[in-house]
# Entry
Amino acid sequence: MKRILSGMRPTGKLHLGHLVGALDNWIKLQEEYSCFFMVADWHALMSEYEDPAGLKTNSLEMVADWLACGIDPKKSVIFIQSQIKEHLELYIVFSVITPLGLLERCPTYKEQLRELKNRELHTYGFLGYPVLQAADILLYRAETVPVGEDQLPHLELTRQIVRKFNNLYKEDYFPEPKALLTRFQRLLGLDGRKMSKSYNNYISLSEEPESIRKKIGNMFTDPARVRVSDPGHPEKCNVHNYYAVFAPEKKAGVDELCRKAKVGCTDCKRQLAEILVSHLSPIREKRTELLADKDRLHSILDEGAKKAREIAEDTMAQVRKRIGL
Ligand code: TRP
Ligand code: SF4
# Structure
């Protein structure tokens, strides 16, 4: 089976955006690929270094979220980046061959500097973010990397680093990894902007039912529907989009009732909330159960680290040989 590597930064609770945008896809990929799923805690440190206290807890909780959603340690290797020292070793090798200009021009870099104003990100480490990501991928010689569109510049940089390495050291050792962009369903945040922790417009995977009901109840609907008798425009309504994602079989029905003004927005949202409650309850319960048994979580991660390390050590031995160190 071909190898896949992907990762997430442990910067807080996972939400519906992570489920729809990544996890649902990871779960399917487990059947067809040899999957490596990594907690990118070094990457998180790059932006959270001023207040890193939550990283360890967040890492464990994120893994609990993954497992609760259906990432299966019997099928996939689940591990924490900072437990495998070879990530940093390959990172330094790639650092010395990566032109500074490529990093300075990287669109994600410029965007993050602009957007994350409350953090001091003008650091040497943060500039090298995509170089570490390239090391993550190539340490496992992964050919496929499931990511969202926002990560494409990092994948392109990874390919450039591979070409440079293979060119310099005269043998095509590393494969050029490809992004696997699934046409994700688009799920916006509760306020219609991108779902994000910093906008506080999300529903977390561990959200309590009451809180889900409240948050869905506060969503904006079609602004043209002032009275229940006004026909609605579901295409202009974010609630309708949530139906499309979480209850596709109900989408057409809601569409019709809305256009014919046969359902009011309050009811429509109430039903959606119940759909989400039943979708998330098993995940929340599983997550609680997992977090109550930390020993088991740690042993899953130890097992994952062992498998990851084996490949990582082999890659680094090959890299050292090729460079002549
Ligand atoms: N940069 C990725 C993100 O923010 C996380 C990540 C780190 C990653 N290393 C990776 C993703 C390797 C894919 C492959 O989402
Ligand atoms: Fe949106 Fe439902 Fe109201 Fe139509 S009835 S506008 S789909 S919330």
Residues 294-323 form the longest helix (30 residues).
